[in-house]
Amino acid sequence: MLNTIKSSGFSEPSEIQEKTIPLVMEGKDVIGSSVTGSGKTLAFGAGIVDKIKRGSGVQALILTPTRELAEQVARSLRSFSRHTGLNIREVYGGVGMDSQIRDLRFSDIVVGTPGRLLDHLKRRTLNLSRVKFLVLDEADRMLDMGFIRDVESIIKSCSKDRQTLLFSATISREINHIAERYMINPVRISVDNQVDPSKLYQTYYDISTEEKFSLLLHLLNLQKSGVAMIFCNTRRNVDRLAKALNQQRIDALAIHGGLSQNRRSDTLQAFHQRETLVLVCTDVAARGLDIKGVTHVYNFDIPNTPDEYIHRIGRTARAGKNGIAVSFVCPGDHGEFRQISRGTFKIEKLNTPKLERIISINFSSNMDRKVNRQNNQGQRRDDRRRSHRGGSRENRSFSRRSVRRHVSRNRMFGR
Prior knowledge:
By secondary structure, this protein is an alpha/beta fold. The protein folds into two domains: 2-190, 3-Layer(aba) Sandwich (Rossmann fold); 200-405, Rossmann fold. It is built from 18 helices and 14 strands. The chain has helices at 2-7, 15-26, 40-51, 67-80, 97-104, 114-123, 139-144, 148-157, 173-182, 212-222, 235-247, 261-272, 283-286, 306-313, 334-342, 369-386, 393-396, 400-405, and strands at 30-33, 60-63, 88-91, 109-112, 133-136, 163-168, 187-190, 200-206, 228-231, 253-255, 278-281, 296-299, 323-329, 347-349. Strand 10 (253-255), helix 12 and strand 11 (278-281) form a beta-alpha-beta unit. Helix 2 packs parallel to helix 3, helix 3 (40-51) packs across helix 4 and helix 6 (114-123) crosses helix 8. The longest helix has 18 residues, at 369-386. The relative contact order is 0.14.
């Protein structure tokens, strides 16, 4: 077990691993409250890898809210289970069914999204009768995305003689409902937020909607180095902002749930490999992804809830490194921002610098936040539908060359 932990890059167990691994080995159901990057994949995976045998059917099922997280979890599991020969497969929408059907015949561990997993269950191409371990990863996000019925259907298809492990950044009423119905005397554990308040500098600007793009350009061009994630509330804003940044000679890539799986995977790989230093994203697309080395988080659109704000700023100031979180507060954002600022660390107001030029772009305003929430709900419905089919012809034709076309290794934040 210690060798497994060390082979994953941990010199010693993290807090979530230290608390979870013994419980998994004892056969306990677990509810873990932890954030992305805390080492929770190894926390539940080490015990699973140790307890199942190759070639005995699907013995472990791990549910994730997004395709990217499914890929990330499967990749981590493979990295510390190489010595076992276990067959680990991802199952998600946006790709063909045939190859997945073939892979499922020989899988020991399956990691997947609810929509596509349910598709396989309906087709009877996935047998969960031998499942010994059921893991619900980022459970709060799955419920937020409207997957509750799918998740419950999948749980009911699993063997009753199983161990259930649930991990969630927040423990809501819905999470407790799942626990009461489908878990047996779960042990609850929690770990401290991995963000170091002493390393995180939080700021905000009172800014007009017309000026905030120019302010973002100004701040990005001030950065001599660093890795930035810029959050928007809608897919439309993500696309338009990334395009506008590239037009101003700032290399930026966009990621959201409306893109094909291939395009999202290529974009994330480019960002991980630092082929670009700016990623514009929605909360849904970025949630659960462990992206290391982020130095700056920009809330181009103010999030709708304090929880989303915490998830966003939690991307930076990790592992002893300094981080900066910047929020752009427009006239229609003050109500939400007051709620956010009550429950978090100190957020310092900064005076808006003199901007040399104003580039007015008609981004979706946060003035009507009801529209934004409706758009987000539509995104989640689209994600569920997309899990049952491939992407559009335009998205499927996206290639690795297309990512590189937007990226120059010789430019950093517009230099």
